[in-house]
Amino acid sequence: VGGDGAAAAFTRRRLLASAGGAAGALALGGAGYAIGRESDGGADTVPFYGARQAGIATAAQDRLVFGALDLTVGSAAELRELLRAWTDAAAHMTAGEPFGPVVESPEAPPIDTGEAVGLAAAKLTVTFGFGPDVFDGRFGLAGSRPSALRPLGPLPADYLEPARSGGDICVQACADDPQVAFHAVRNLARIARGAAELRWLQLGFGRTSSTTSAQTTPRNLQGFKDGTNNLKADDDAAMARFVWVGADEPQRWFRGGTYLVARRIRMLIEAWDRTSLGEQEQIIGRFKTSGAPLTGTHEHDVVDLDARQRGGAPLIAPDAHIRLAGSAANDGERILRRGYSYTDGIDPATGQLDAGLFFISFQRNPHIQFAAIQRRLGRNDALNEYIRHTGSALFAVPPGTARGGYIGEHLFRKHS
Ligand code: HEM
User: Fold this and answer.
1) Positive or negative, the Cα torsion across 126, 243, 212, 381?
2) How far apart, in whole angstroms, are the C-alpha atoms of residue 6 and residue 11?
3) Which sign, positive or negative, has the C-alpha torsion 248, 249, 252, 253?
4) How far does residue 321's CA lie from ligand 1's centre (Å)?
């Protein structure tokens, strides 16, 4: 960008200034704030405040930006300040407002970076979680570790890359507009400068799961309907049983929270695309077009794992994905899947597409639920020939907060 570009950028900024101005931006923000509040639950905003964090039981949006950050602060008090600032910013952004003036002083960088100005809230949700290392003693929080927040440890068929794994804090931003989701994570990282650094970042598109009964089932990059037999987030009883941490949690502050597992799963797309339709359907255990189980005709037909072909072989193969992932083995293992497709261009080493599923699941115990399923899948899933788990992270997602509070407040109340 030459001088002209800079001038153009400057002019654009001036334009914003004259449209809004410092006072104007605040006034606009103020107006937006009021509208945001009134339209809570309306078509375009998802309420930020509430007993649970949004972005879990709320209907999955179309786009994801997921950031994992490492903390560089040295004390619980500084971490608390960061969470306060993040909560405030997230509340504004999810209401469709800038969280600070885009235009204030020509001498200082804008507070809000501005790329979401003029864009709708796009159902933005921002969901925060704490990684296991937050409770390693650095902040004096070792006594408050959520009881299941132990690292997942190696699982069969892992090909994990440390640079795409772990992290102290996660910020899951979902929206129907990718720029709105990006703006959220970018600005939260910016607010955190000096207190936390981005460790890895993943963009996702095309939700790969239906998470409510009203949503139709989308397709993943293998072309199969994904989410048919997912937990439904509007099924309160199932959510209480499988997703929300309950009254049996010894860490009172974490009751009403949940655990988020993120897995970056690359699909070996070229190999998959050379596989015959019949084999693809055997691998999954469902028909590609309809999404029906191989033992049925309609998408939501109940899977019959005992059905056999005339020769006696099971219709759904012993190593089919839905047999091994399904809850037949242990009904207590069900999870809420809320993942997205991703593509990160071409793998320079092989010239092949680096694309797949950024898998996200929520559950009340990642070891008893996610890891138990993944252990079976990693050992025997027919899909393994076509996928590689390249990233992994686990976060404890605290409950939500009310206006005036901040995410994680109960953790700190105990320590202040
Ligand atoms: C790239 C990797 C993966 C792909 C392409 C994939 C694809 C699919 C598809 C097409 C279905 C059938 C439709 C449905 O019920 O949603 C399914 C079901 C399921 N998958 Fe996956 N999946 C992947 C990884 C995983 C992982 C890592 C887990 C958990 C550890 C998992 C857990 C499940 C579960 C629980 C079901 C429902 C099974 C049932 O009860 O019928 N999947 N998956």
Assistant:
1) positive
2) 8
3) negative
4) 7
Question: Dihedrals φ, ψ of 398, to 5°?
Answer: -70, 165
> Is ligand 1 within 6 A of the CB of residue 224?
yes
Contact 125, 95 (CB under 8 A): no
Digit-coded pLDDT (tens) for 52-109: 999 999 999 999 999 999 999 999 999 999 999 999 999 999 999 998 888 888 999 8
286 CA closest ligand 1 atom index: 12
Question: Helices in 245-340 by DSSP H: which ranges?
Answer: 269-273, 277-284, 321-325
Q: Which two tokens stand for residue 139?
A: 């902040």
Q: With a 6 A CB cut-off, is 325 part of the ligand 1 pocket?
A: yes
Centroid of ligand 1 to alpha carbon of 346 (angstroms): 25
**pLDDT digits 0-9 by tens, 291-321:** 999 999 999 999 999 999 999 999 999 999 9
Residue nearest to atom 6 of ligand 1 (CA): 226
Question: Which run of H or of E encompasses 84?
Answer: helix 76-94
With pLDDT > 70 as the criterion, what percentage of the chain qualifies? 89
Distance in Å, CA 71 to ligand 1 centroid: 33
Q: How many Å lie between the centroid of ligand 1 and the Cα of residue 227?
A: 7
CA distance 183 to 129: 19
The tokens of 402 are what?
């009310």
Cα of 306 from ligand 1 centre, angstroms: 19
Q: What is the pTM for the complete model shown?
A: 0.90
**Better pLDDT: 41 or 127:** 127
- Residue 323 CB burial class (10 angstroms; 0-12, 13-18, ≥19): buried
Q: What one-letter code names the amino acid at 373?
A: I
CB distance 52 to ligand 1 below 6 Å = no
Segment holding 30, helix H or strand E = helix 22-38
In 82-217, the DSSP E strands lie at 125-130, 169-175, 196-207
Specify the residue with its C-alpha closest to ligand 1, atom 34.
325
Ligand 1, atom 43: closest residue by C-alpha: 226
Q: Is the CB of 269 under 6 A from ligand 1?
A: no
pLDDT at site 209: 72
Contacting residues for 174 by C-beta, under 8 A, at least 6 apart:
55, 60, 61, 63, 64, 123, 124, 125, 127, 181
Which of 268, 294, 337, 394 is the pocket-test mutation for ligand 1 (most atoms within 8 Å of CB)?
337
